[in-house]
Amino acid sequence: MKAPKRLQALIEEGLIDSVSRQLMSGKEATVYVVQIGNDTRCAKVYKEATERSFRQAVDYTENRKIKNTRQARAMAKGTKFGRQAQEAAWQSAEVDALYRLAAAGVRVPKPYNFCDGVLLMELVTDAHGDAAPRLNDVTFAPGDARKHHAALLLEVVRMLCAGVVHGDLSEFNILLGFEEAADAAAGGVNVPVIIDLPQAIDAAGNNHAARMLLRDVANLRNFFGQFAPELLHTSYGLEMWDLYQRGVLHPDTLLTGRFEQKAGAVDMRSVMREIDDARDEESARRARMGM
């Protein structure tokens, strides 16, 4: 296909060789399949603020550090330079989160480069080498639902131990990729891979971190609970956050899914409203896109 303008610049700079096709268009970016030598990767082209349906809500941007004081002042005043700096900070947040989480062993696409608002990263594929499907496009047997739910809880724990909360985690931004076994004869297994991290927040420095973590975990519970109803009665999010706050959460911590909530500890009604609002927003977006 003809390369979009933003990607044509990367071809001219020798960062990519060609553009194969558009993979998907989401609320904050359009993703393309690209060729770099013999490798097939993807390029995430971030949309301008005027084209993006996902708002840079204060819940997500709270306490994000801007080292350049001139940029920080301009962003606070809302000048043209400030808006440009805010866009750059918004985009680089995903790049920073990807490198940070990959180093912590979280299953995310491997980032390769970030240039002029374009993120080059690993193309997550299925067992046939095609682009991996999102969870919302897959139907699961009860056993597989329980297995993938447990795997994703481990990823969320690893993220939290690395100081990161996804903030927008759901079946719409998790891919079901394929991982080959160390022994080629053993084949491989399907594994969930977490994507879309520009709204990731600092677990320790954001006042909304607890609420967003609970929403992320509740989204996983509600999705997989369609296939394994017993999951609907678990409280992994509350348990996870309590352990994190007490400084005893580790990547290998065994969770029970049970938690006795102390009065006034967490406003679950507010959390459920957040979950409902997020689902309504996603449903409206999908309706606009004819999905």
Low-confidence stretches: 52-58, 70-78
What structural class should be given to the helix and strand makeup?
alpha+beta
Q: Give the overall form.
A: globular
CATH class, anyone?
Answer: Mainly Alpha
- How many domains make up the 3D coordinates? 1
How many strands in all? 9
- Taking the alpha carbons of the first and last residues, their distance comes to 23 Å
* Main β-sheet description: 5 strands, antiparallel
Mean pLDDT, nearest integer?
A: 83
CATH topology: Transferase(Phosphotransferase), domain 1
Instruction: Output the helix-strand order.
Output: HEEEHHHEEHEEEEHHH
CATH architecture: Orthogonal Bundle
- Largest sheet: spatial strand order: 1-2-3-5-4
Our Rg estimate from Cα atoms comes to 20 Å
Number of helices: 8
The amount of helix comes to 25-40%
Hey, roughly how much beta strand do the residues contain? 15-25%
Can you tag this structure with a few keywords?
291 residues; two-stranded antiparallel ribbon; 9 strands; alpha+beta
Task: Provide structural commentary.
This protein is an alpha+beta fold and 291 residues long. It has one domain (5-288): Transferase(Phosphotransferase), domain 1, CATH 1.10.510. 38% of the residues lie in helices and 18% in strands. The chain has 8 helices and 9 strands. The chain has a 5-stranded antiparallel sheet, sandwiched between helices. Helix 3 crosses helix 4 (80-103), helix 5 packs antiparallel against helix 6 (209-224) and helix 6 runs antiparallel to helix 7. The radius of gyration is 20 Å and the shape is globular. Residues 52-58 and 70-78 have low confidence and may be disordered.
